[in-house]
Amino acid sequence: MERLYSLQGMRGVAVVGVVLFHMASVEAKYSGGDLLLPSLVDFFQLGVDLFFVISGFVMVIVTRGRHQDWVQGQRFVYHRLARIYPNYWLYYAITLAIYLAAPGMVNSAHGGSNLGMSFLLLPSDKVLLVMVAWSLVFELWFYLVFAGLLFLRERWLTVCLAAWALLLVGFNLVAQWQDYSQAVKIMLHPYALEFIAGCAIARYFYSPRSASLATRHVWAMLLVSVLVGMPLIAALGLYRTEGLSRMLLVAAVFSGLTLSLVLLERRGQLSVPRWLAHIGDMSYTVYLSHLLVLGVMGQLWRLVGARPDSLWDNAAFVVLMLAATLCYGWVAYRLIEKPLLDRATAWGNRRFHKAVARKVYDAA
What we know:
Blueprint: H1 5-30, H2 47-63, H3 70-101, H4 115-120, H5 134-149, H6 157-174, H7 182-188, H8 192-205, H9 215-236, H10 244-266, H11 274-281, H12 283-304, H13 312-363
Helix pairs in contact: 1-2, 1-10, 1-11, 1-12, 1-13, 2-5, 2-8, 2-10, 3-5, 3-12, 3-13, 6-8, 8-10, 9-10, 12-13
C-alpha cells in the first residue's frame, strides 16, 4: 500500500485540534476563572470531520484491486475491527474502573452510560462510557457499508458512493435525522457525506485524470481550502451545528485540502515533517486517551493551585496538558497500540493467506 505521509500529517493536525478543543474546558474548570485558550479553539472540534474524510480516502487505498473477492472482503472486515476494538477496549476498561470506583467522575452530567452498548460501540440513547468513542460508532457504520460495496465490481464504486450521497442529501433536505431511533440516526446522519467525499477524492487520486491536473491548480486548491474555505466555515459557525450545510461545506473544504496535499506530495512538491507524521501514527491512542490524561493533569493542577490574577500559570498549564497528552500517546502507542496491531495483523495475514491458498487449490 502506498505510504502517504501527508495523510498521517493531517491525522496529527486533526488529533491535536481535538485535544486543544477539549483542553479549553479543562482550563476553564481548573484555572481559577481566567482563560488563555480563546473560544476560537471551538473550531478545532472539526478535527473529527477531517478524520472522517481521511478514513474514506484510506478505505479506497486498502481495497484497490480487491473487490468481488470473498476472502479479501473478510480480510477487510477483520482488519477494520482489529484496528478499532483492541485499543479501544483498553480505555474502556480504564474508564470502567474509574466509573465503578467513583461513578460521579464519569459522565455524571450526561445521565450515565449503557455499559454493554459502549463496550460493543453500538448506537445507544445514552452517552458512551468513553465519550470520544461516539465517532467510532460512525466509523463502524461506514466500514459496514463499504464492506458491502466490496462485493460489487470496483468500477461501480463511484456510482454507488454517489447514490449513497444523494440518498443522504435528499433525506436531510426533507426530514430530520434527530427524529429517529439511535441506530437510524447513525445511518441517516450527514456525517457519512464526509466519508464519501474522502472515498471520492481517493478514486480521483488513483485515476489517470489526476495526472493532467496542473500543479498550479493544485496549489490554488490548497490555498482556497485554507484561506477561503476554513474562514468561511468559522464565520458561519458551522462547527457548532450538525446539519446538512455543515457536512457539505466541511466535506468540500477538507476534501480539497486532502486531495491537494496528497497530489503535491506525490509530485515531490511537499514534504511532511516526520514529527507531525509520527503524531498521526499515534493519533488513535491520543484520541482515545486524551480526556483521561487531561483529567489527571487537571487534578494535579488543582493541587498546585491556580492563580486567577495571572495568565502565566494558564500558559504553563496549557503547555503541560498538551505535552502530557502527546508524551503519553507516544509511549502508549509504542508499548500498547502498535504491538497489539502488529500481532492482530500478523494473525490475520496468516489466516487469510491460508484461505487464499485453499481457494487456489480448490479452483485447480
